[in-house]
Write a structure and sequence with these properties.
Elements (H helix, E strand, L loop, with lengths): L2 H12 L3 H11 L10 H10 L1 E2 L3 E2 L15
Antiparallel strand pairs: 1-2
Length: about 70
């Protein structure tokens, strides 16, 4: 994890956004957050924490090909 990425996680924690901090940690270490949290929760967090509505802080959004259906 780079210093910039660590700063983003710390800022999220300081702001009380613990779920978002967890998403950031998972993404920065190369894990797909959708394997650990429900899709609706992840989607809400992405919407709440996106900058200008384009891309979330950190990385680009997970593509549909990476989304695993749990049917």
């Amino acid at each position: 994890m780079t210093n910039d990425q660590l700063n983003q996680v710390v800022e999220a924690i300081i702001a009380g956004k613990y779920s978002w901090a967890c998403v950031l940690v998972l993404r920065f270490y190369g894990y797909n957050p959708l394997h650990y949290i429900p899709y609706r929760t992840y989607n809400r967090l992405i919407k709440e924490n996106s900058q200008g509505g384009n891309h979330p802080v950190g990385k680009t959004p997970v593509s549909q090909s990476q989304v695993v259906s749990k049917v």
